[in-house]
Amino acid sequence: MVRGNGDGGLGASAAESDIAEQKLTNDEPRYSVQVIEDAAAILGCFGSRNTPLGVSEVGKAVGLGRSKVHRILNTLRYVGFVEQDEVTKKYRLGLRMFELAAAAGSRFDLGPEGRQALQQLVEITSQTVNVGVLRGREVLYVASVSGTGPLRLEIEVGYRAPASCVALGKAMLAFEPPEFIERYLEGPLPGITQNSITDPERFREELTRSREQGFAVDDEEAFPGMRCISVPILDHTGSPVAAIAMSGPAARLPMSRLLDLLEPMREAAHRISTSVE
């Protein structure tokens, strides 16, 4: 059952604040194995890019020397976590990583009712529909159904985007406790496009407005020429577990049209919330 906080503010209980804090950062382990941290950082490079990467590109991204990156990539290739193109010698994620991703993704299973809700929403609106969850400072896309229009935004499941730049992220952040939001605002707000909100005070106001109205908008803030609207998927306590978003060309989706699509989106979010509880 979807249930929000009717006061329109950003308040929450101490317990909710503790849970939200865990979603933003992971506790540092007492004993750290550096080579594992380095390998995780290297794998993370591929998770945020759709193109193969060479040893030098990876080293520059993670701040490690070429020889060390080469040794780690060679080990990751041996165990199937990355693959190497025989011609270009560049690396990409291996099938083993996709197997693990599928296993992790099953933790947020939309279920038959949730998947049907997404498909029906696309049939009603003709627009691309995505579902995302908050992971650190990013949104992880866990489900996507392409729209039927000639111009549409295609986003693969597993794609990550800065939470502050996409409607999915703003819809979830708006319903987090104030302590969580302030902690989030301590970090950088990346500017992907000229419309991205990079000022903390402006972004705080954006989240307040999103919470009050019950939805968030991304006005060409992540993808030029694309506009997106999102509503949170809330659990029985009113905390966000995910969000659902609909996107399309800005020229075909004026704000008036987006607002007309809110009700079917909220109905879909309600059905998904019920199916994942």
CATH class of the largest domain: Alpha Beta
Gap between N and C termini: 8 Å
CATH-level-2 architecture of the largest domain: 2-Layer Sandwich
* Share of helical residues: 40-55%
* Protein structure class: alpha+beta
**What radius of gyration results from the CA coordinates?**
20 Å
**CATH homology superfamily name of the largest domain:** GAF domain
Count of β-strands:
8
The CATH topology of the largest domain: Beta-Lactamase
For this structure, the quaternary state is single chain
Strand content: 15-25%
Taking the sheet with the most strands, its summary is: 6 strands, antiparallel
Unreliable residue runs: 1-22
Number of separate helices: 11
Q: What integer is the average pLDDT?
A: 82
What do you see in this structure?
Mean pLDDT is 82; it is low at 1-22. The strands form two sheets. This protein has a six-stranded antiparallel β-sheet, sandwiched between helices. It has a two-stranded antiparallel ribbon with strand order 1-2. It has eleven helices and eight strands. It has helices at residues 14-24, 34-47, 55-62, 66-78, 95-105, 111-125, 167-173, 178-185, 200-213, 255-260, 262-276; strands spanning 82-84, 91-93, 128-135, 138-145, 160-162, 216-219, 226-234, 240-249. The chain has two domains: 14-24 and 108-276, 2-Layer Sandwich (Beta-Lactamase), CATH 3.30.450; 34-101, Arc Repressor Mutant, subunit A. With 277 residues, the protein is of the alpha+beta class. The radius of gyration is 20 Å and the shape is globular. A hairpin with a 6-residue loop joins strand 6 and strand 7.
